[in-house]
Recover the amino acids of this structure.
């Protein structure tokens, strides 16, 4: 729906919409206007989902009556009025801000990437996550399957990823401390096993495919340095999140200076100022922002511009809902320093993942095809989402390691 006089359009409601997504939930935001245009955004976080949804509800009165075209003004108004930031605020703010972009694109009858300066590329390169167990995931059922995580199983999965023509993949270390273990140190045995796993993958994919590793914030500085140095022979695309990024940029700088393995982080940094603290001291090789966490499209663009000034590539984190993947794709299409976008192994997804958005994601030969419709170019299926309401999965999953997890 195209509106000719956008000044008459005002926001009438802002609502969080949660969809159970298997081992996590998707937090969508629906913004309605008096012109009949509805915008959808996503601000998904695996932990404290209900807290983020509650913040969205708290923020609604600030948005009622606002012109949805005034995205920067609305963002600043919410950010300043909130007094302090943090994960729950920024994830909620991301969902709201991205829904506003959908409204503006629909009102002007153009894709969001055209509002961001147009496309630097026509399709989005993906990196495949996870290469850790052949046949792991829901695999078209309502039950979780652990898969084959032996070296033979991992080699089989790496071969499958290569055959699907992906040009990058990601795997995870072996034997790291599991949440909620209190230690962040890992053993020499774990490091050797991780290097052996990496060796197997590299032997299968050769030099044709980039390989990344994600340590999921689980290590201390000493263990991070040992792991990074053990991985040097395998020429990684990046080592992701060795230590918690909300604690000290200086730790990342020390890791980066100790190894030739490229170091990246960013999924839990929530705005341009947080990234500035890393980049101005030379703490990163790769910027791994998350379009569901970083405050929205405007903040993502500012972070990308900052990274460009330091000659750093952007490889967005993206293990969230299908709408988040589309939002990320619009962003990736519009920036010059894009490298690759995370793509979650579809076998790990629930059967309804492709039903909650129309059209679903279209991946061909390791690339995500850009939508061409107005706004994000997709519509959300609220009837399907209503069949899969919120179900706590983060803490229950930590206690069971996802084994025999049932999703109803």
């Amino acid at each position: 729906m195209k509106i000719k006089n956008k000044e008459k359009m005002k926001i009438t409601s802002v609502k969080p919409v949660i969809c159970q997504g298997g081992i996590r939930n998707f937090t969508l935001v629906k913004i309605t206007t008096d012109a009949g245009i509805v915008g959808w955004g996503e601000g998904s976080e695996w932990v404290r989902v209900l807290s983020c949804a509650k913040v969205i509800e708290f923020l609604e009165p600030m948005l009622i009556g606002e012109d949805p075209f005034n995205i920067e003004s609305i963002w600043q108004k919410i950010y300043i009025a909130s007094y302090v930031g943090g994960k729950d605020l920024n994830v909620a703010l991301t969902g709201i801000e991205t829904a506003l972009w959908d409204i503006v694109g629909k009102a002007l009858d153009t894709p969001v990437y055209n509002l961001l300066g147009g496309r630097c590329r026509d399709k989005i390169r993906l990196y495949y996550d996870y290469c850790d167990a052949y046949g792991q995931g829901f695999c078209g059922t309502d039950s979780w399957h652990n898969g084959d995580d032996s070296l033979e199983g991992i080699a089989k999965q790496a071969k499958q990823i290569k055959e699907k023509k992906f040009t990058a993949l990601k795997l995870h270390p072996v034997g790291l401390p599991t949440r909620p273990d209190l230690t962040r140190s890992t053993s020499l045995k774990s490091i050797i096993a991780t290097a052996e796993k990496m060796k197997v993958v590299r032997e299968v994919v050769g030099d044709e495919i980039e390989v990344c590793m994600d340590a999921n914030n689980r290590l201390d500085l000493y263990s991070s340095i040992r792991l990074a140095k053990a991985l040097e022979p395998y020429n990684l695309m990046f080592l992701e999140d060795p230590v918690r990024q909300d604690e000290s940029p200086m730790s990342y700088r020390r890791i980066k200076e100790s190894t030739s393995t490229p170091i990246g982080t960013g999924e839990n940094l929530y705005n341009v100022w947080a990234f500035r603290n890393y980049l101005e001291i030379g703490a990163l090789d790769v910027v791994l922002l998350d379009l569901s966490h970083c405050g929205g499209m405007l903040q993502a663009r500012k972070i990308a511009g900052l990274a460009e000034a330091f000659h750093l590539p952007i490889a967005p984190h993206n293990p969230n809902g299908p709408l988040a993947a589309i939002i990320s794709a619009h962003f990736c299409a519009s920036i010059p320093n894009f490298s690759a976008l995370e793509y979650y192994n579809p076998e790990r997804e629930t059967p309804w993942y492709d039903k909650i958005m129309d059209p679903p994601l279209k991946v061909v030969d390791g690339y995500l095809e850009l939508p061409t419709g107005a706004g994000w170019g997709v519509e959300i299926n609220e009837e399907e989402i209503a069949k899969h309401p919120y179900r706590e999965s983060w803490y229950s999953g930590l206690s069971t390691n996802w084994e025999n997890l049932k999703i109803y």
Remarks:
- Residues 114-375 form a domain with the TIM Barrel fold (CATH 3.20.20.120).
